[in-house]
Amino acid sequence: MGQPDTCQSNGQWNNDQHDEDSFIDGARCCFRGLDNWLGVFRLQEFRQRNMALSYIVFQNTTFWEKLCKRWEAGAECVQALNPQCEMSWAKHFLRDRSYSYTANHVHAHGQYAFYDRTCQSNTVLPEIKKVYTHPEVERSCLTNPEADHFKNCTWQIMEEIYTTKENYYQVYMQNKRRWDGLAKSALRCMRDIVQASHCNQPSKDYLWHLAKLQLPAIFNVTVIYVPENPKINFTNPKRCTVGVYGDPHLRLCDEPRLITCSVPGKVWYLNNQHLEIVGVNELISPGHNSNATTVRWLQATFKGVSGRSILGTYTARDGNLATSFDGTDKAVLGTGNDKVVLMSGFHTRVVISQYETGVVLMVRHWRGHYYFSVRMTQELIEESYGLLASGCPPKQTIGIGKMF
Fold first, then answer.
1. Of 238, 248, 256, whose CA–CA distance to 277 is shortest?
2. Which of helix, strand or coil describes residue 293?
3. Which of 121, 225, 327, 366 has its CA 20 to 30 A from that of 184?
């Protein structure tokens, strides 16, 4: 038997049917009880954690069962205010709150999707409980730098989402493809940190679920699929070239046109399990009516084929192109399958190749400005994150399809 029409929800609160003062007041009481308890949970988690370790939301699994029970009780409270509706409607209403002035905060925070991602009725899902109760799980196996990087993945990649001022649901539906792509990038960021760590496999499985709990509540993690252990076919003939040219014009894998993007400051251009490229951009004409930026510093970090070891870095700075890798006088990193070779002598460019992964990076310079392109299998691009994987944020896009 279906629910009454007044119980249907598409993510928007129907003011004509539901916006009654008595119901709203009662629902806010249901919310308040859950929110207050979540606040206590966060405070207790903060007090009980090892103060020497970085804090990751929901890292303390002690309260997971209690969270499930509290959420179920909150939904029962809402459903009792509207008894003709089923519990599934009440749970959706409790999580969504689109009509509420707190909607942006709710959608931006992962704690309001904890139930959907972890619980079944008033208890933790059996498959999730099996993961976090495994006797070999070490919840604090990440090093401090790894934990810091892990917890910052979501903000650094999804800043445009967190800073959205408009109605969260409406903006999400208008930008669903991009926002889902950013969520996948954030998951890849956390996944790559975990996979490169020295944590044992049970701990990695636990951290992988913890990564999903960091995403804002508006995302459905069962739909946004990112493999925990991607297998890249480096010999796949379907390859792609991405890069940065001029001030800066982005060349993306799935976009035939150049995108002019204003990105001052430090930028993650392309990160994956085998290569990281970061740069520092400056305004071309500070003080003038132009937001165009240019790359003034660039660093590429090369990793072994396994993705767990860093072989070395190459940095372009001060208008020069070094002829060796950082801290050495060598033009070769690693041995065997990990071998990375730097070729110079071209005056305006260097070419760095890792033959096993098929990655080729070319860096050029002109009067203190740097441009670069990198070619690799499209599979590896699709498992990457950064500006060249997700594209330019709409508010920072200057133009598309032409040079400025």
1. 248
2. strand
3. 121
